Amino acid sequence: MKSDMGLMMNIILGVVGAIILSFILRLTGIGGGASASFSFAYLITGFVGACLLILIARAVRR
Questions:
Q1: CA 52: distance to chain centroid?
Q2: Residues 11 and 54: beta-carbon distance below 8 Å
Q3: Integer Cα distance of 26 and 18 in angstroms
Q4: Which sequence ranges are marked TM in the entry (predicted)?
Q5: 50 DSSP assignment
Q6: Where do the domains of the chain lie?
Q7: By C-alpha distance, which of 40, 48, 50 is closest to 32?
Q8: What are 4-61's pLDDT values in tens digits?
Q9: For the range 34-37, what are the long-range contacts, defined as Cβ-Cβ under 8 Å and sequence gap of 24 or more?
Q10: Which pLDDT score is estimated for 42?
């Protein structure tokens, strides 16, 4: 991935994006909410949230 952002910035944006998307999905009732244990749904939510926030940050920086 060609990016001017460093590795730490990508990690931070990824974690924040995962947290934000998980929160939004829980508010809308789409997110699991059953237990805090690891599941495949949490993995997918985290991945998508991280990608979206990194994409937004890159678009804003340009």
A1: 7
A2: no
A3: 12
A4: 7-28, 40-60
A5: H
A6: 7-28+37-61
A7: 40
A8: 667 888 788 878 888 888 788 788 877 655 555 567 777 787 788 888 888 888 888 7
A9: none
A10: 74
25 sits in which H/E element = helix 7-28
- Evaluate whether 8 touches 1 at the Cβ level (below 8 Å): no
Amino acid at 3: S
CA proximity to 1, closest of 57, 44, 43, 49: 57
Contacts of 13 (CB under 8 A, 6+ apart): 5, 50, 53, 54, 57
Number of H helices, E strands in the chain: 2, 0
Token pair in block for residue 24 = 């939004």
